[in-house]
Structures are given as structure tokens and as C-alpha cells.
Amino acid sequence: MKDYYKINEIAKLYGIGVDSLRYYERLGILQPRRDTNGYRLYPLKEMYKLNMIRDLRQLHFSMAQIKEYLDDQTVDNTLRLLRQEEDLVAQQLAQLEHKARLLEQRVETLEAARAIVPGQVTLKQLPSRPCVLFTQHITRDEEMDFVMKKLQRQHEDKILDFGNQVFGAFLAMEDLLAGTPNVYDGVFSVVEPGEACDFTLPAGRYLSLHYQGPYEQNRQVVQHLLSHAAAQGLAPAGRPFELYEIDNRDTARPEEFLTEVQVAVTERAQA
Description:
Blueprint: E1 4-6, H1 7-14, H2 18-27, E2 33-34, E3 40-43, H3 48-58, H4 63-71, H5 75-114, E4 121-126, E5 129-138, H6 141-154, E6 166-171, H7 173-177, E7 184-190, E8 199-201, E9 204-212, H8 218-231, E10 234-236, E11 241-246, E12 258-267
Antiparallel strand pairs: 1-3, 2-3, 4-9, 5-7, 5-8, 6-7, 6-11, 9-12, 10-12, 11-12
């Protein structure tokens, strides 16, 4: 076995780019000698460092941290590094477990949404729901996604997972009643109880109606919901709004969209 290897041989053997090897040299981690033709020759005794660099980089140690360790490699420093690795692995496991829970929740939510039968009016007793809001008049579908992204950027500390978050929009009732569907006054997202919020959907009774397909139907859906309320002796106690159960986060087919319209209601006052 040779005592020295050329840069291309080392790059091929360890699967490391030539530029990376030159970078390690500039940092002083590797110290190749030069042959008579000026080619870099890497000593075999330093090759163990490449495995350590690879392993430590996978654990997200910086090159500065790696160099500091290799410059003073002792049992004490190795134990210190191993404890740091343990902490990092524990953090990564916690992150993976959190991601697994989010995926499980998303699967359960989507499967539950697919089981909903659209077109049925129901009366729900719901708890208070704190929300963050981005107010903007929206007249096109493509504007909705853009405004939702604005909402998320404004509240990145509260909207942590775009796929799992509950998003909704307040219907622009003036436009809707004038005959224009699919128009909104703002979008919101429901956040965790106790979080700072822009407004709260109050606890109480809500009439609910799911519809499937494009949003252009929402004018008829709202009219049907309000007519049902009147027939049951109920009066709206707030603005109707939509909640997006299945949307373009889940499918590119509008016919698969599932949207819930809710409106808070109270007993109609007797004349």
C-alpha cells in the first residue's frame, strides 16, 4: 500500500469532491505535500480525518468546530464531542417524531374529509377559535393562494405547518348578494388556544354546509344556508365564512375540493 495518494485517487475512493479536498487544505485540516511535478500527495496517515469530517458534517457540525476538534484530539475532547452528538441525535429524533405526528394528523384529517357527505346542513356547537387574519379584498382564485402566503409570512411563529393548518376566508357578502360568487374580504388561520391572535370565532352554535367542487358555487351555498336558518327560526350572528377541508394543498382537481361554509346563529327574536 502506498504512503501517499493523489487528489483524484482520494476523491474517487472517499466520494469527496476535489474542491472539498482543496477547501480542507485551505483550512489546514489536511496538509498534502507536493511531488516533483507539483501534484498534491495526501499522506495515508491523515485519511482517517476524511471519515470523521463526513460523519461530523452529517451531524451538522461546522467546519470550524471540526477543525478545532482535530487540532486537539484527546479522549476528553472525543467524549465532549460524543456527548454533543448524543444531544444532536436526540434533537433530530424529536424533530422526526414531531414530523411523524404531523403526517399522521394530516392523513387522519384528509381521510375524515373524504368521508364527509356534502350538501347536508348541520348545526354544530363549537368552542372559541383564536385566529390570525390578513384583510384583503380577493376576487380571483389565484389571489387567494398569494394572500394565504402573506398571512403565513406575517405569522410564521403561529402558522408552523402550512399543510396541517386550518385556513378560512370571510365571504364578501355585499358582492355575494349582488350576484358575484367567489369573492372574499380576507383570509384567516385558526391557531392554538392561548396564542396571541387578531380575532376569535366565538364559542356557540354554527350552521354548517359542505360543498364539493369549484368555489363559484358558494353564492348558492350561502343562500341555501341562510334560507335554512330562517326556516329553523335562526338568525345569523356573524359573517359567513369558508373553511378549506380539501383544496389545492391536496389536489389539483377542482372537482375534488371540499369546502365548509359556517355561520354563527342565534334564536330569531319573536315579533
